[in-house]
Every structure is written in C-alpha cells, then in structure tokens.
Design brief:
With 141 residues, the chain is an alpha+beta fold. Strands 3, 4, 5, 6, 7 and 8 form a six-stranded antiparallel beta sheet that branches. A two-stranded antiparallel ribbon has the order 1-2. The radius of gyration is 14 Å and the shape is globular. It starts with a strand and ends with a helix. It is built from six helices and eight strands, in the order ββαααββααββββα. It has one domain.
Length: 141
C-alpha cells in the first residue's frame, strides 16, 4: 500500500490482512471498548488507539480540517509534513498523534509521537521506536 507516495511498511500490510490492525472505522472504534494493546503495555505507554486506513499524511491533514491543531500544537517546524503519516494516537482527548516518520528515507520509517510540553514551553516530537517493527514489538501486537 502506498499513501501519498509513502510506502506503508510490509509488516503493517500483513497486520491489516490478518486483522491484527484495524481495517476499517468500525474495527478502530471498538478500541474505545477494548484495546488491541495489552493492558499492562497501555498503562506503561498510555492508552493507544490504532487508526484504520485510509491513512493520511500530515500535509493532507493540515490542508484539511487539521490545520488549526497542527499549526497551534503540532510542532510543524520539526516535521516534514509530506513525509509524516498518522497511524495512531494516545486515545480520546489526548491530542497526541503517533506518526510514521519517513524523513530518513522512503522505507523503514521511525515511529514518533507528539510530546506535550509544560506550560510556556513548546510541544515537540519524540522517537517511540526506530522502526515500525520495534513499535509493534513495544505494543506486543
């Protein structure tokens, strides 16, 4: 699968095919009742909600209804919006997207998340995993 020229990691495609990653909005919304991530890992990492396809680049989101959020809170200066793909977040109300970050190349993207700063400081992006496989392992998926 390719999204706006970005190649989705093979492992994510496999997980979608096997139903280990939400394949549609209905499957994604069920995470509000029962997380796909084990409770002990969710507690450690915060609650994680995996997005279903179609995935979107930050550039596409900013061009649409996500412009205000990313402009105000999303530390856009730390991203290359065309090379960042939203795949998850930390649950309802968290406003902390999790992205595949393709800045280092067209394959094997890092996984980053938005870290909210203390009052008066700026939010910034933090590496969660050096690649998607490491992210999947961290979540126990």
């Amino acid at each position: 699968m390719v999204v706006d020229g970005l190649l989705i990691p093979d492992l994510l495609n496999v997980m979608l095919a096997e139903g280990r990653w939400p394949r549609n909005v209905d499957e994604a919304s069920k995470q509000n009742l029962r997380s796909r991530v084990a409770e002990n890992r969710n507690r450690h990492l915060r609650s994680i909600c995996l997005y279903a396809p179609p995935f979107h680049t930050v550039a596409r989101i900013v061009a649409g209804d996500g412009r205000e959020f990313y402009s105000r809170f999303g530390a856009l200066q730390e991203l290359l919006p065309e090379a960042a793909l939203e795949i998850a977040d930390f649950g309802l109300g968290a406003d902390a997207p999790i992205l595949l970050d393709y800045r280092s190349g067209p394959s094997d993207p890092r996984v980053i998340h938005l870290e909210w700063a203390d009052r008066g400081e700026s939010n910034h992006w933090v590496v969660m995993a050096e690649n998607f496989a490491g992210f999947v392992d961290m979540l126990g998926l």
